[in-house]
Each structure stands twice: as structure tokens, then as C-alpha cells.
Specification:
- The chain is α/β, with parallel strands linked by helices.
- The chain has 2 domains: 34-161, 3-Layer(aba) Sandwich (Rossmann fold), CATH 3.40.50.1010; 172-229, Nucleic acid-binding proteins (OB fold (Dihydrolipoamide Acetyltransferase, E2P), Beta Barrel).
- Helices cover 41% and strands 22% of the residues.
- The longest helix has 30 residues, at 3-32.
Length: 240
């Protein structure tokens, strides 16, 4: 074999080795990278609904898993006597159905069995541990327990805290007043996603759909709240 052939053979061998290394690295990344991790969605995230908007942005690089035990819990709440929770649970079931239609992310309903005496939160922690996955929740207590167990948590409230407020001061929204607030002159309603809206001077407008003007929007790790007034009215001054 002449020197030229030897050089060509060495070059081909180097190309083969480099190609093999690249393909191996890509395969390893596909197996261990973020895209292969599973995110288990809990009841509170579905009832909140914003997980659907996040999924549609293709921002999540994970597989979303909805355990059937979570679906069953939503069904139980939807059949309950609490009007507000029943409405939010039905909204959560709609969100679960819509998530499965989102093309930008892989969503799976996992047919899991809940042992007698177990709770849905305990099942979520077990599933996340067994698959080295994450839990998506807005539930404060589940967040704390999962973190203590060494499980990574995705909290939509935390994400919202670092983003621009969803509702700006002066913005007008429509709301149905369903009850009174801590102050007797306040009316209280909820947006479709469960956000509480406290409206000044609206205690007499219970069961009415009215337009209100945002005065303040609060976002904390525990949830969201909007303080509003009826357009044209001045917010009531706090007594000293």
C-alpha cells in the first residue's frame, strides 16, 4: 500500500470515528436530555388553565403526563356541591382535553391505579420519583412536599411572577359578582381561570354581570387577585 492510500485510509478512519462520536452524543442527549423528562400535571394546574397557554407556546421541552387519578379527582370535584370548585373542575377537564390536541407538545393520559387509602398528591410524588420526572402544580403544600422529596417542581404562578402583569391598571374586564368581600361594600367574583376579583362598591350587584376597571393586580406564589372598581367611581378610601 503506497503512502497516498495510507493517508486516504487514515482520513476515512478519522471521519468514521468523528461521525460515530457525534451520533452517539446525539443519542445520549435524546435519552438523558430535558426533552425525555416527564412532567406530571396535577389537579390545581388543570383547574388554573394557564398550562394550556404555556404548552401552546412550545416553551416546555418535556412530555406532559396527566395521570388518570387526577382526571378522576376532577370528576369528583365537578360532581360536588361547591359551585365555585365545581365550575373550576369542569374547566380543568376541558383544559385536559384541549392539552391532548396541542401539537407543539406530547401529552399522555397515564392509566394509573390509586391504591385504597392513597391520595392523588402521594401518587404524583410516587410517579415523579419512579421516572425521575417533575411535577407541575400551583398547590402550595404539594410544592413544598415535592421539593422536600427532591422532586423538581414547575409552578405557573412562579413563572407568572417574573413576567409582565396579565392585567394592567385601568384595563376593563367583565365579571359576574357572586358574593361579598371582607368589607361589606365589596363585591367578589372570579374569572374563568379562578382569579378572584374584589370590586369596590359592588356588594349590591350580586348575580349581576358588570364591567369593572382594574385598580391593582397582585401575583404571588399562592395565586392571583385583582382589585377593581366600577368605572366612573372613585375607590373607597380606607378609614384611619
Amino acid at each position: 500500500m503506497d503512502p497516498v492510500q495510507i493517508v486516504i485510509l487514515v482520513i476515512l478512519l478519522l471521519i468514521f470515528i468523528e461521525t460515530t462520536i457525534i451520533l452517539f452524543a446525539r443519542s445520549l442527549k435524546a435519552l438523558t436530555g430535558p426533552s425525555s423528562r416527564k412532567v406530571f400535571i396535577d389537579t390545581s394546574s388543570l383547574m388554573d388553565g394557564r398550562i394550556l397557554s404555556v404548552a401552546r407556546t412550545n416553551f416546555l421541552g418535556y412530555d406532559l403526563i396527566i395521570p388518570s387519578s387526577v382526571i378522576r379527582e376532577l370528576q369528583l370535584i365537578a360532581d360536588g356541591k361547591d359551585d365555585e370548585r365545581r365550575s373550576r373542575a369542569r374547566f380543568g377537564l376541558d383544559v385536559a382535553n384541549e392539552l391532548q390536541r396541542v401539537e407543539e407538545v406530547n401529552v399522555e393520559v397515564l392509566q394509573d391505579k390509586l391504591d385504597r387509602g392513597d391520595f392523588v398528591d402521594e401518587r404524583l410524588i410516587e410517579l415523579a420519583k419512579n421516572s425521575h420526572g417533575l411535577i407541575c402544580t400551583n398547590d402550595f403544600n404539594l410544592n413544598k412536599v415535592a421539593t422536600a422529596e427532591g422532586i423538581d417542581v414547575l409552578n405557573i404562578n412562579d413563572l407568572a411572577m417574573v413576567l409582565k402583569n396579565q392585567y394592567l391598571k385601568g384595563e376593563r374586564i367583565h365579571i359576574k359578582i357572586t358574593g361579598t368581600g371582607s368589607n361589606k361594600n365589596q363585591g367578589v367574583g372570579h374569572l374563568q381561570d379562578g382569579t378572584m376579583v374584589v370590586v369596590d362598591n359592588a356588594a349590591t350587584r350580586i348575580d349581576s354581570d358588570i364591567e369593572v376597571e382594574v385598580v391593582k393586580y397582585l401575583q404571588t406564589s399562592a395565586g392571583r387577585m385583582i382589585f377593581a372598581k366600577i368605572p366612573g367611581q372613585k375607590p373607597r378610601k380606607k378609614s384611619k
